[in-house]
Amino acid sequence: MKKIEIERTKRGHPALWECGGGRRNTGEATIITSPSGGPKKAIYIRNRGSLANEHHALFIIEKGDYIIECNHHREDFNIYIYKILDFKTETKQKEKAEDIAIAELMHEFSWGEWDKEPPAYLEAAIQAAKEKATCYHCREPHFAIE
Fold it and tell me: Mean pLDDT, to the nearest integer, of 9-38?
């Protein structure tokens, strides 16, 4: 299980940013999908300020959604596909409360191969993650319904 730090909207909904982009030889991306692997509607899209390789679109997330984390060095990719199982608020001693999503690693791509093949319905999101991670100084969402 992985704990992923999340945001909360003003109404208290759990939310996560699509973020990332490429640099000269490296890059990373975080993509959020629905349980069916399709894009979700962004509740906020940043279009001002310092955007290169930063937060680009905010999504409300729910149990069953997928989070795809992708990074590369000279296009040698590592891809991790997580499924959200639950949400939790943790309070650490002398610190403020932290909202997290509890997610299970479903599929991993490293050393040029998958540990187990992901379902076909995630293929578009995986491709979007790779495109975002290689998009030089990325400034916009790559997998969102606008």
Answer: 96
Evaluate whether 124 touches 114 at the Cβ level (below 8 Å). Answer: no
Domains of the chain: 2-145 (2.60.40)
Q: Are strands 144-145 and 40-41 parallel, antiparallel or unpaired?
A: parallel
Give me 84's structure tokens. 């959200």
Q: What is the reported pTM?
A: 0.93
Please, are residues 45 and 100 in contact by the beta-carbon 8 Å criterion? Answer: no
Average pLDDT over residues 8-27: 95
Q: pLDDT band for 97, please (50, 70, 90 cuts).
A: confident
CA distances for 88 relative to 6, 41, 85, 95, angstroms: 10, 23, 10, 16
Closest by alpha carbon to 53, among 138, 142, 143?
138
Residue 50 has pLDDT above 80, yes or no: no
Pairing relationship of beta strands 144-145 and 55-60 according to DSSP bridges: unpaired
Pairing of strands 113-114, 26-33: unpaired
The CA distance from 60 to 64, in Å, is: 12
